[in-house]
Amino acid sequence: MAQPATETEFTLDTAAELAAEESGAVIRGRSPWYLAWRRLRRNYVAFAFLGLFILIVAACIAAPLYAHHVAHSDQNSEHVVGTITVHGKKLDIVSQGGVLNGKLVASTPIGPQGFAAGGKYILGADQLGRDIAVRLLYGGRTSLFVGIVSSLICVAVATFLALLAGFYGGWLDFVITRFFDLFYAFPVILLGIALGAALAINGIHWGPIKVNSGNIMIPTLVISYVLIPYVGRPLRGQVLSLRQKEFIEAAVAQGAGPLRIMFTELLPNIASSILVFFTLIIANNIVLEAALSFLGAGVQPPTPSWGTLISDGQGLIVTRPWFAVVPGLAIVLTVLALNVFGDGLRDALDPRAKVKIEH
Amino acid sequence: MAAFLIRRTIGAILVMLAVTFIVFLIFIIVPGGGKLGTAQRIAGKNATPQNVLNIEKRWGFDKPFYVQYYRMVKRMFTNNLVSYTSQQPVLSQIKQGMPATFSLTIGAAVIWVFFGILVGVISAVTAGRLSDRLITILALVGISMPVFWLGLVMRYLLAEKNSVFPDGEYYPLTANPLQWAYHLILPWLVLAVLFIGFYGRVLRGNILDTINEDYVRTAKAKGLGAKRVLVKHVLRNSLIPIVTLFGLDFAGVLGGGAILTETVFDLHGVGQYAAQSINNFDLPPIMGVTMYGAFFIVVFSVLVDIFYAFLDPRIRPT
Predict the structure, then answer these.
(1) Nearest residue of A to residue B295 by CA position?
(2) How far apart are the first and last CA of chain B?
(3) Per-residue pLDDT averaged across A56-60, rounded?
(4) A315 interfacial to chain B (CB closer than 8 Å)
(5) Chain B contact for A203, CB < 8 A?
(6) What are the backbone dihedrals phi and psi of residue A205, each rounded to the nearest 5 degrees, phi first?
(7) How, if at all, do strands A98-100 and A103-105 pair?
(8) B83 touches A at CB < 8 Å
(9) Tell me, what's the ipTM?
(10) Which helix (H) or strand (E) holds A92?
(11) Which of A12, A280, A304, B4 is the most exposed place for a label (fewest CB within 10 A)?
């Protein structure tokens, strides 16, 4: 505390003077969100990584522009027999396999060209002559779509279940928590594979509802589903402890119904945890999507995603290592950006929320 | 203690029953498929119409759902679950894969626990300093890396481009322990990276929480050395959540979580068996691995609970 410059005796008169001075100044109320924002604002690292994430999203959204104006090739257009001109030389996009000088040579797609081919095949081609750079950007769209939409669904359902379980308690709580516990018996990746594989074969057929097997909503739903318990259980715990607080008692005394208490009293109090979970779950789901697609139980070809691209590149790892490396780097950067930002968000909002990251 | 054991065992049996029901839902009910659709899915891609009809009859897909459930469970418990693509019984294939999966998990677990604790302690002790920040960033990078991609890159760099390590495949322990370890070093390290990052971060947080406890202040006040306080008072209590986490993770990796590492390094474990079945659109092996994997996790978690109850009497009444 700074001492006043002139030492005066503290009397009732001086107190009254001080009070008069203070009432002139406007005392602003500061909401918890504002306080969190002030803490977050100073975390430059978190903001730098948020910027990186936005940049990656923007690049993927701009994929059609790149495809039409730079690469002149669509995501699924194949050029198995085409040629490109590099420095005045004509090169096969996919070299012919066969016997060369007595040795068996596999047909190999063209490697990374940089800007030598005028924007075509900057990162090379795959076995079918498709432009990898174009597929990388479109694949990013798929991966980000699956990651973000599945997190939205997962967090929304988990929040709803947590509110129901925590608010009503009793048998409803028992059923919901048992449901959560049951899914801890399955490793996340195995549950995802089981659902993904079962649904990938001939899609979903429930009377009038039909989702075809190639639809990316299938991996999206599978991924959102398998992580519900991991978000729902900690949220339920928070709701349960909030339920005992006086403000809920006050709301009940005012005659508020269950829905109003759940959505206008309890929900705002767990909103910060939900936001943190949402950010970190996106990161987690992008990795999970890649893993499922890599194994063939996620996004189905020919739709590109970062996972399917790594899977395609696996066969060419010796001759064209960059093919498998680049989509992996895209995943690492995206997920790292989300994890660092999510961490910063957690430190600012709610240091208690903990998301277990599984693969 | 007897009551605790009985209650825990009954609970586990109930969970296992629920697991079979979930497997039934996932593979038979949720995808739907109408007439012959389910049989087609179980039969695999290259099944003849006659095969599909046989499966429809034998699994009872034309009957009510409880008949289907009963027949599926009976089939799984009497070792009659057969892959219709390869004509191999699923359980014997899983047994063949067990040595590789066990070897991979146990070795990786030793590495990840040791380095996880080391990383966590170092970054907590030097909290706020450069080494802590560096470790935090590295741990985050480790957590953000898809394990199969890391495996692919490592295998390319260290086994295919430069032959520092052998290129994939499992070597039986009984044949030659040295070759066994040599073949597994790369998979062990790759599988451990993710967990090292994760455990390091959790432990760092726990230690920083524990350091502010009253009993730590007391220990310091009565004149104990810094090292002794750290090991005997702080670390001992900070490790409890890590032990819980380890029990779950270890069981999860053994029960099928190592599927990606096994596939990338071609180890022919249980996980890779399931992964290969995905590409053949062969469902029975995936059903088997999912169910037996979940069973294993349930049994393992009961064993961990009993072990805890011996260690910590406070858990017993609950």
Answers:
(1) A185
(2) 11
(3) 93
(4) no
(5) yes
(6) -130, 100
(7) antiparallel
(8) no
(9) 0.88
(10) strand A89-92
(11) A12
